[in-house]
Amino acid sequence: MPDTVRESILADLHTTLAAVSSLKSAQRWEQNGNDFTETPMVVIAPAPEEKEDGPSALTTCRLDVDIDLYVRHDKNEFAGSTDAYLNGLLGAIEAALMADHTRGGHAIDTEITGNSPFEVIEGQALAGLIISIRVHYRHQRTDPTAGG
Q1: Which listed residue, 17, 74, 85, 109, has the most CB atoms within 10 A of its CB?
Q2: If you write DSSP's letter for every residue of 28-96 in order, what string do you get?
Q3: Does domain 5-139 have CATH number 3.30.2000.30?
């Protein structure tokens, strides 16, 4: 069975983030839980998607994706603040995402729509950011495996 355009985009996001040298792991969302043993790491989680059929045979899609960045801040590895550590990782992730905003030719555009820190409590084991992106793409109205 061929991949849908949506799946090709999500697979490209995974490949792109797995290549970020400052991350130890990039994972797709798993119903049974993800592996948080190696940090810093990201989990790629699809969020709401909007679809609009046009007058042509194409469906225009706007797929929101949350990239959850998790860290355990070890002062022996990074002496600065947790905020500075997260900002450095955020910069590396954003640069990687925008190096190919077409997601390997499957999308019209990728935009970074924002980020938000986790609500952390002092002494909590993990801290992080939720990085929100939106991917614009099209597929044939009758065939989501065929791009447009």
Answers
A1: 17
A2: E--TT----SSSSEEEEEEEEEEEEE-SSSEEEEEEEEEEEEEE---TTT--S-HHHHHHHHHHHHHHH
A3: yes
Task: Please give the chain's pLDDT, 148 residues, in tens.
Answer: 679 999 999 999 999 999 999 999 999 999 999 999 999 999 999 999 999 998 899 999 999 999 999 999 999 999 999 999 999 999 999 999 999 999 999 999 999 999 999 866 777 889 999 999 999 999 999 999 999 8
Residue 148 and residue 138 in contact, taking contact as beta carbons nearer than 8 Å: yes
Kindly list the domain boundaries of the chain, sorted by start residue: 5-139
Q: State the number of CA atoms in the 13 A half-sphere of 55 facing the CB.
A: 0
